[in-house]
Amino acid sequence: MKTENLTGTRRVWDLPVRVIHWSLLAAVAGAWASREIEGDWFRVHTWCGYAVLVLSATRLVWGFVGTRHARFASFVRGPAAVFRYARNLFTRQPDSATAGHNPLGGLMVLALLAMLLAQAITGLFANDQIMETGPLFGYVTAALSDRLTTFHKQLFDLLLAAVALHVVAALAYLFLKHDNLILPMITGRKPAARVPATDEIPGSRTWLAVVIALVLGGILYAIVRNAPEASLFVF
Ligand code: HEM
User: Fold this and answer.
1) Atom of ligand 1 lying closest to residue 181 CA
2) Which of 30, 112, 130, 185 is the most exposed place for a label (fewest CB within 10 A)?
3) In this model, does residue 93 exceed pLDDT 70?
4) Which residue's CA is the nearest one to ligand 1's atom 26?
5) Are residues 223 and 44 in contact, defined by beta-carbon separation less than 8 angstroms?
6) pLDDT tens for each residue of 61-80
7) Ligand 1: which atom is nearest the Cα of residue 24?
8) Which of 21, 104, 163, 189 to mutate to test the pocket of ligand 1 (most atoms within 8 A of CB)?
């Protein structure tokens, strides 16, 4: 009988997943800082918003055409599976039995992506009641823009809470379950002892993710460029 090699590591996360993840962190931090810091940083805020939009939309598409563990079909589970997993969370030892996202993590990924997309899209229509507006402000009434602005602000608080929970969860896995999920998000690899050889991904197909990001970025550019009052905005 053939025995599996349990030494070394196996590739689980492709390069696009990892680059998108850490770029999202930078873009969200940039968007936050550019609103918090004194001074005229609105242009930076807008560009960070564009980055969040293109990155999360690319990740959304990658969830259908990306490598095995990046696909929604591989980690989105029904409520029963999520509940079963949550119930046994701290009775099981390191549980990288799921090479990719576990059922709870999968839920978090969906929630984060939905919030990031909603955050960036509402920002396109928002206004700050003084002089700054999102690039698509001209497409909606002032009243609707105000409502979207309120939502944009409230959702950001929710997003920050979700990110905090997400980071606490990653640290809890590390310190309580001795399961390091953070390093694989950097290197793409998990210890071979935790990932069956059949679960290793062969390669990243990074070129495809780059094409998707360029196409989505191009669409955003065309929409913003052609928007009414577009000259006010930042391209
Ligand atoms: C604004 C900040 C952040 C956002 C928006 C964010 C969002 C996300 C998203 C969307 C995923 C799913 C990755 C994918 O499948 O493509 C993910 C996974 C992950 N993130 Fe974050 N993240 C943030 C910050 C962090 C930080 C600071 C850490 C480290 C402490 C972290 C650790 C992880 C880990 C370990 C995973 C993989 C979880 C698993 O193995 O199931 N994230 N994050």
Assistant:
1) 35
2) 130
3) no
4) 167
5) no
6) 999 999 999 999 999 999 99
7) 5
8) 21
